[in-house]
Amino acid sequence: MASSLERLVRMLSGGFSNQEQAFENPPLYAHILVKFRPLPQLAPGSLLLEQSYAINPAAPYRIRVLRVEALNGQLTIVNQALAEDQRFWGAVEDSELRGRIQTSDLLPLDGCAYVVREESEGFVGEVEPGCRCLVERKGATSYLVSRLELNPAGMRTIDRGHDPITHEHLWGSLAGAFEFARTDDYNDEIPAHWSEQWGD
Amino acid sequence: MASSLERLVRMLSGGFSNQEQAFENPPLYAHILVKFRPLPQLAPGSLLLEQSYAINPAAPYRIRVLRVEALNGQLTIVNQALAEDQRFWGAVEDSELRGRIQTSDLLPLDGCAYVVREESEGFVGEVEPGCRCLVERKGATSYLVSRLELNPAGMRTIDRGHDPITHEHLWGSLAGAFEFARTDDYNDEIPAHWSEQWGD
């Protein structure tokens, strides 16, 4: 049986769309696409993440390299930015470009790891405690409170920004979580040597 | 000088897009298009309204016929649905289809008129008092609280749903108003006989 770590990497390695939610609730939810795709040239568990408006997948609004790990038995998704990330926009659909991402391109995002636990058939992850994952929006600094729920059928996410001093809720959807269905599966791109290192 | 009524019709008769807002605040705002276009065959002040996700303008999520009036000196935007409205989807970009809309196709939306006042260079409209503009969303009935701010450069809108009994805020964006820039001008489609009836 696969380890929790490997199950989490497998469940993440796919494409997700909230099209149904967007079309059932106009205009409250943007239609967005989220893809996580293995980067076999990097450390085991490394996944390219692109998030984009469905209308413009060539210009993702967020591009990250995640690294799924089990640190002292605690499932963790380490969150990293890319230096000059525009070089890699669209790499999630371009294997040649994806293959050019190197460890030296990665920038740590302190305080922004997700702490993950298994829950029923899936996983729930939340930004690590400490209110240290700072983001800029509309000229103000806020800290990110983010939750990710993953199951075999899809994913739910919710992001909110809070004021670092007053903890006031500054931005984020009151309408609720984004709800994604799974549209693509990239499991066959997970290299065999990752499983070997994970000791299955 | 044009009457307030005519100024309001002229300021509405255009196309609007919140592209800048959507792209500056991903993924909190869907990119939406709103167009108001004169219907010269109907009563003076009649405008076809279509609202759509930018990704799919052929399938508007809302299509209405508005009628701008001055009732006892009070600027009012009467709100009407269309019977079997799918017949008219895309009419805002199709003059032949638009020309087929007849008075007999219109369905009143009781309690959903906007009461409008002039404010600096533009107008502010809010749904008439009474909590009677009922909408169904996610299987629940709510009443609409909606505000429209119009100025020469663009438009801001905010829609919220409240429970008819408890007045609890059920849906709507905490992130704030949709902010639209003007992208199209349909002033030259306002027929001369409307101005004549308005007595300018």
From TrEMBL, chains A, B:
Keywords assigned by UniProt, alphabetized: Lyase
Example of a GO biological process term: protein-tetrapyrrole linkage
Gene3D superfamilies assigned to the protein according to its UniProt record, in alphabetical order: CpcT/CpeT domain
Molecular-function GO terms, alphabetical: lyase activity
Keyword flag Lyase: yes
Coiled-coil regions, chain positions: none
Pfam families: CpeT
Keyword Lyase: yes
EC number from the UniProt entry: 4.-.-.-
Family in the record: Belongs to the CpcT/CpeT biliprotein lyase family.
Protein name: Chromophore lyase CpcT/CpeT
Native species: Cyanobium usitatum str. Tous
